Amino acid sequence: MTRPSYTTEKSRLEKEMAKLQKRIQTLQTKQRKPKIAAIVRSMREYDITLEEVSAAFNRKAPGRKPAAPRKTSATAKRVVAPKYRHPETQATWTGRGKAPRWISEAEAAGTPRETFLIADKAG
What 3-state class would DSSP assign to 5? Predict the structure, then answer.
């Protein structure tokens, strides 16, 4: 028994995919027909025109406030006050994330991190 080549296998799968897509479309059409019929029946019952439906569809619901813009990660970030300051260069660090080189080098030289703490202005 021989193995099918890439092109024949691809062709067979594409035909199968086309059949499945057609079946999906048929199923969707079957599901939509009764819904459309019910909408048309209601429109006739209440003398609703297409223009009225179009206007209502494009109009915002009365009494509803417009949705507030969602905050993205860039706008949701808060500013954090610095916790440490280098006495000579005045460089600061919040204490979050990886320590800056000047703190790492000072600690390696034996200076404790607390030496660089910024004094609390409230107290």
Answer: coil
CA–chain centroid gap for 54, Å, is: 30
Distance between CA 43 and CA 51 in Å, rounded?
A: 11
Question: 59: pLDDT confidence band, cut at 50, 70 and 90?
Answer: confident
Q: 101-117 pLDDT, tens per residue?
A: 999 999 999 999 999 99
**Residue 35: DSSP 8-state:** H
Coil, helix or strand at residue 117: strand
Residue 94 in contact with residue 80, Cβ under 8 Å? yes
Query: Cα 41 to chain center, whole Å?
Result: 39
Q: What are phi and psi of 93, to 5 degrees?
A: -145, 140
- Collapsed DSSP state (helix, strand, coil) of residue 84: strand
